[in-house]
Each structure stands twice: as C-alpha cells, then as structure tokens.
Amino acid sequence: MMVCPYDEGRLLLVLQIDHSKVTGWFAAHWGNDTFAPPTPYHAMVLAAQEHDTGWWDWEIKPHLNDEGLPPDYIGSIKHLGGRVWLDFYRHGISRLAEQDAYAGYMVSLHADGLLTQGRGLLSYMPDYTVYPEVKEFLSEQESFRAELMKQMKDSEDYRDFVSDEQLWTNFKLMEVYDQMGQFVCNRYPFSSTHRKNGPSATLSNVPVPVRPGKNDTILTFDIKDESRATVTPYPFDVDPLVVSFQGRVIPKRRYKNQSELLKEYYRAERVMINYSLQSK
Predict the structure, then answer these.
(1) pLDDT in tens for each of the 280 residues of the chain?
(2) pTM of whole model > 0.90?
(3) 91 — phi, psi (to 5°)?
(4) DSSP letter string, 13-40
(5) Region for residue 205 given its phi and psi (left: phi exceeds 0; alpha: psi -120 to 50; beta: otherwise)
(6) With left for phi above 0 and alpha for psi between -120 and 50, is residue 120 left, alpha or beta?
C-alpha cells in the first residue's frame, strides 16, 4: 500500500490494487497523433490494470512494520519478507494468465523487472537477484513465460505480437504505466513534497516508446497545483485526462499490534482523490 500524510492527524492509504486500476486507466487512454496505442490493446490494458493485484492477498489483512505503522510500498520486498512478496506476486501472475496468456506474460516480465532493476531501465532500484529465493522465482517465471509463449504463438490474437522487439516495447510501456501510476497515487495532495522516494517527475527517465520508426522519449510531469499537472509530451487520447482513485484515511499514530491497525483499517473513511493530467 502507498502511505502518505492526509492531514496533520491522519494518513492516506492507497492500496496497490487501486493504484493498479489507475495504471490500467493510463494504458486504456494511451495513444494520439504522437503516440501509438499499445498493441495488442486489450491484453496490454488488462496487464497494466492487473499488474499489482497479487497484492490483494496481503492487503485484505495487512500488518504493521517494525515502527508500529502501516508499511509503505517502497522497499516492500524487504520489509514484508521476500517469500511473502514473491508468493502473492506469483499468485497474481498465475490468476491473470488463466484469463489471458499475453497479459500474464507481461506481468511476469514486470515482476522480473521489479527484482532486476527494471531489466536495466531502473538503475536506482535495488538488485534483488543476490537472494536465493529471488533467483528461484526468476527461474520459475522464465519457465512459466516459455509455456505462455507457446499459447501466444498458437493464438490468432497474439501470434503477431511476440517478436523480441514487440515484447521489449511492451515491457517498457508497462514500466512507464507503472511509474505514472505510482507518481500519481503515492502523494496527497498532488503538489505535496513530502514523499522523497519513488518515481521522479520524469518517471525515473524510463524510455517511453512513441511509435514504430520513432525514437523513445522521456515524459515530464509539471505539477501546477493540488490537483493538476501537465505531461510533456502528452500521450493520452483525451485532454485533460481525469484520474480518480480511492484511498482510506486512518489516524496517524503508532499501533500496538495488527489487531489495533485492522480495526481502523476496516472501518476507515473512504475518500475519492481526483487529479487531472493535461497537455498545457
């Protein structure tokens, strides 16, 4: 979950499963005269929308960190425990692949990237490949993707989208969508400067695919006020793009135990956060 101040006495919790929906919203609206829409469209939107839904396994009953606070998502592999994180991500990938092989393949690649510094795109992230359980997970997922690839090559819907070039383009798009989803959802209000970690205003300089035959670019967010930001160059099919997501508000204090946290967590006020992204 993403944890940030809501006001002086309360915290805002944005669940990863809700952040995931925002990420899917970006994928669904990606594409205009400058940027090509993602292809295959339905599978890529589904992958973006569901990329973090494995977190549901943990977020239905979260626990505290060592400081007695709800844990923020940054560094979650370490503070939740590698096995916990790997297990719920594995479950989310498997569940998605049952519905759509291509979407499952892309989220498996995304999980790989979270453990391997974005497959070279995100050098600021920790490299988790030194841990035996991570190596095991990566090897397992590589084998799983090989099985999904067989399905994709046999599919009339997907066989034209499985080249190395296409998969690398789509992996970069997944990272861009996720970076955008984090940047938008991990702060409140939009203009808050409290958060010191996570994606930058240039989305950690992840190269953004434009369209075939064009060089990748970098997106830049310029936050204008508490609810609006410009994005340059602008990648969406509507302008402005209104982004809405749910958060939970709980008292800002240290909790004695999980039971005390869950009481506030389950009865927390739900609030809707509304931001707007525009070209100028």
Answers:
(1) 999 999 999 999 999 999 999 999 999 999 999 999 999 999 999 999 999 999 999 999 999 999 999 999 998 888 888 899 999 999 999 999 999 999 999 999 999 999 999 898 888 888 999 999 999 999 999 999 999 999 999 999 999 999 999 999 999 999 999 999 999 999 999 999 999 999 999 999 999 999 999 999 999 999 999 999 999 999 999 999 999 999 999 999 999 999 999 999 999 999 999 999 999 9
(2) yes
(3) -65, -45
(4) EE-HHHHHHHHHHHHHTB--SSSPPPSS
(5) left
(6) left
